[in-house]
Structure prediction request, 260 residues.
Amino acid sequence: MTAQRTATDLTGRTVLLTGASKGIGAAAARAIGAAGAHLVAHYGRDAAGARAATADIPPERVLLLGADLGSPAEARRLWREAVAWRGRVDTLICNAAIMEETPLESDDAEWDATWQRTFEVNVYAPASLVRDAVRHHREHGGGVVVTLSSWAAQQGSGNPHLLAYASSKAALHTLTRTVARAHAREGVLAYVVAPGIVRTDMSVRSAATTGGEEAVTARLAMREWVPPEEAGALIAWLASGSVRHLTGATLDLNGASYPR
Prediction:
């Protein structure tokens, strides 16, 4: 019997995925592993979640690495250790993020601290990783960068307290598209995935502050949240870099709730 292949084939590729413990990251880890890649699965505090997400991947094809992406030095260490594993990283996927509220009514100390923490994790860390990846890819004849933005980066957040989060996702979106334009001729491919409401713990917590799940669902064109597995499959496909001229694109994943 001939072995069946998944629609995406990542055999022989090494992928670094941040935030592999839960939600979109966990779904992406499963899809990337099923496609045959060697996966460097990053986690912040939830090592158990990362282990669960990668449990079906043969041990020789997975490396779990912890790092606090609130520190640029930790992001750089993560990259170095990922490259050291197999000598090369073919695809970087920047998925890890935090979503903390920054109400206008916050006191100055809380406002400043939350904006700083959000940009450290959601912008500075992925920017550092993208920087290292682009330099690495240029030396090795090309590679792929995938970043996770949000529809909030284009339309603004439906939650008025997510000012820092939406702003950070817009920054990452612009960074990725700039990389795509600047380095396409060198074989560096860069894509943005902009999800809408994906069924993750983060989205459930956010929905609780904007009328609850039923109210949020009623505003969606398909009347359903995006399954994390669909996001994972899309990310795995982009990780292959198989459609080179798609570089620079933003792929909206929102069930026609925000067509552009």
Summary: Residues 14-250 form a domain with the Rossmann fold fold (CATH 3.40.50.720). Residues 1-5 have pLDDT under 50 and may be disordered. The longest strand covers residues 188-195. The CA atoms of residues 55 and 244 lie 31 Å apart.
